[in-house]
């Protein structure tokens, strides 16, 4: 679940940079702390789960690219104060071999220091490697805050929430019901 959460946050961050640009584009390049909360889903998961991770954004004009801590990549555009990122990630769980595919659509608005928005993650589990098929959607709200140098004082400043809402460590396994009735 943590990997899914990190990817979701990355997608959200990328979506924040996805609209085509006006003259006063946000400068989003840098490192961001992302906190996302599961607000709805049809995957049999409990809403309210919180994921926290860092996202690195690069920017060229109105085009943005983002990479999360697990090296998943997203791309998008920025217009005025709005960003949109998208991405597609396919990977196998290192323990079970279950192959999942996640599509991300991340949209947000804000300032060069904080972005707020929504992320939608389409999740599909391979029926062969996972012991049953699953196709569902996760809806997250998110907040991203810039982590970096203080602009006025020249010292490091973290503009975001302090402690991680989810513990670091191994990838949390998704416990989802598949069409075969088993847990993946």
Main sheet record:
8 strands, antiparallel, barrel
Contiguous runs where pLDDT drops below 50 for at least 5 residues: 9-22, 150-184
H and E order: HEEEEEEEHEE
- Radius of gyration over C-alpha positions, nearest whole angstrom: 17 Å
Mean pLDDT: 77
Proportion in β-strands: over 45%
Number of strands: 9
Quick overview of this protein structure:
By secondary structure, the chain is mostly beta strands.
Overview of this protein structure:
- The structure is a single chain.
- The chain has 184 residues and is mainly β.
- Helices cover 10% and strands 49% of the residues.
- It has two helices and nine strands, in the order αβββββββαββ.
- It has helices at residues 2-15, 127-130, and strands spanning 30-41, 50-60, 63-68, 73-79, 82-92, 99-110, 114-125, 134-149, 156-158.
- Strands 1-2-3-4-5-6-7-8 form an eight-stranded antiparallel beta barrel.
List the keywords.
184 residues, mainly beta, 10% helix, eight-stranded antiparallel barrel, 49% strand
Task: Tell me the layout of helices and strands.
Elements: H1 2-15, E1 30-41, E2 50-60, E3 63-68, E4 73-79, E5 82-92, E6 99-110, E7 114-125, H2 127-130, E8 134-149, E9 156-158
Antiparallel strand pairs: 1-2, 1-8, 2-3, 3-4, 4-5, 5-6, 6-7, 7-8, 8-9
């Amino acid at each position: 679940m943590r990997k899914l959460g990190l990817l979701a946050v990355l997608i959200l961050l990328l979506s924040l940079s996805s609209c085509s640009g006006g003259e006063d584009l946000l400068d989003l390049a840098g490192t961001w702390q992302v906190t996302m909360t599961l607000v709805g889903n049809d995957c049999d998961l409990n809403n309210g789960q919180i994921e926290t991770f860092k996202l690195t954004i690069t920017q060229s004009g109105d085009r943005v690219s983002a990479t999360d801590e697990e090296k998943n990549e997203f791309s998008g555009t920025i217009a005025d104060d709005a960003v949109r990122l998208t991405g597609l990630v396919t990977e196998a769980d290192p323990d079970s071999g279950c192959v999942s595919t996640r599509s991300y659509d991340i949209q947000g608005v804000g300032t060069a220091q904080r972005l707020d928005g929504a992320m939608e993650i389409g999740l599909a589990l391979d029926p062969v490697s996972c012991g049953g098929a699953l196709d569902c959607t996760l809806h997250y709200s998110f907040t991203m805050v810039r982590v970096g140098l203080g602009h006025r004082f020249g010292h490091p400043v973290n503009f975001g929430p302090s402690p991680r809402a989810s513990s670091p460590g191994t990838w949390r396994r998704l416990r989802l019901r598949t069409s075969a009735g088993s847990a993946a």
